[in-house]
Amino acid sequence: MTSSLSSHEQRLAALATKRQRLDALSEEGALEALLSDPEAAALTHSFPEEDFFLFMHRIGADDFLPVLALASDRQWQFVLDMECWQKDMPDYGAMGLWFRRFLKASPARFVKFLLEEEGDLMDAWLFRNVEVRIREHDEDPSDFPDGFTTLDDVLYFRLRPLSEEWTEDAEKSEAREEAVFSFVRHLAEISHPLFFRVFQEMAWALPAEQEEAALHWHRVRMAEKGFASQQEARLLWVPLAEGELEKQGRKHLNRAPDGDWRFTLPEHGRRMAEDRIFSEALELLDMGDVLADLHLELAHLCNRFVAAQGRVIRSREALDAMGQAVMGYLEAGIARITGEESPTPLLRAQILRTYRLDAVFRAGFGPVMRLKWRVQAWWPEAWFRKSGLALSFWEEQGMGILGGLLLEVPLCLDMNAASGRLYRPFASDAEIRETEKTVSDLMTLDDLLALLGLSSVDPMGRLLTWKNLLLTLWAKDSLDPGEVAAVLTPLHEERFRSFFVRIREERVGGFFLSPASRDAFLLWLSDRTRLDREQIADRVGGILEALFQELDGELAAIRPEALDHRYVRLFLLRPA
To answer: What per-residue confidence (pLDDT) applies to 6?
Structure first.
């Protein structure tokens, strides 16, 4: 393969190999290896901007200054774009910290970089931080307020008072002062007339216009990497409309067939492509530029997913977690598009080659957003909410599923997670469909409970669940024939004992809910809700069967004479 590359491409491939070796070293070892490399500048420049940013934070920003001095203007620009903006607004506190670092790393070059590449942002930063006075020929500097200083006895300047948000941040305050005075000194050394003009123009500067102009170019640069504005990036969350995939989701590759870009792809795109589910499909696409373009598309899609959440990722581990989430939704999207629960590698490869990845992602993430919107629409009208009950009413699983869907970015409940984290992104279409079914069951149950005719419900310190509500109400009505309880209260332990003995029967393996008791429960529920048994079976038959099985387990574990209200979960009891 190497022999088919030009000498320039071979050098780029060799630099890429060196970058991969740095990943295997410790932070100190990687920094030392890079700086001691005979081609340290070329190796530094070979980092894609995203990888350079992550490498910098891996090493530590303040320890990274020697490498920062070697970095390219594009790498500098990316660092500023990532660190010095907060939701489309310049972050002047962060700007002081980072300007100070750049001015320590390469002061004269950084001043020229600001003048040539970031003039609008520089002007806005100076206006927000520096107050300027021009001394007239008959004016005495002693008449100026305290704090003014000068380099030429004509132009005087001082730091503006700190904003309230910085008054308690000593580091930002110190960094701002150091950055301003270092910038002024080095600008004057480069060209005193230029220094004078820059500060003189501040008198009629319009910082809002300067910030708007800087924001425009910031957005352009970020969009090139997939980091659209948060509002635009969140279009990624919008479900596909009917026919949109075929009309607008097909790929139109216009990239030149060869070029250096193949050797400077962001590494997280390659790592995402190593996902075990996709690896076989991607092997079928191993056709040089086709696969490389897919790696780049994956990286940009991941960046857009990050931008949609308004986050700045500073570690490889966090970025890989985002990449894994994206791959899960791509897998779900392929399943939705093909209608196959487990598409073959060939079918996956066809989808990846035919459709834009953002469209495939939306095919997978869209159903999650629809489910979130469905829960949000149901939430204010739900019977349990109107009754003043907490999410714990639906027990741990129901509470976790609903809580995960109501997050800004919906997440999947994983009660078996080895990491101890209950929530994670959905990893497959099967998980999405399972969650959809559970939500439908909860909504159906809520509708059923609304028909029970309860006038008020006491949450009982969050001990109340839909299960013990149903079963306790059944027990109360059964113990008082002819009466329909309008208020749910715990049963007396002794009264419940007789009911407990009546509903169970002994069989091989222990005590279980008798068939007659099951029929009695369904008849009671039908009378109470005024639904016939066929309607109940259609709506909640599977749910009630699971409840009966759980009740079997509780009945088998308790002897009537040893009944203790503290250890009964499925009925609400009070002590004798």
So the answer is: 81
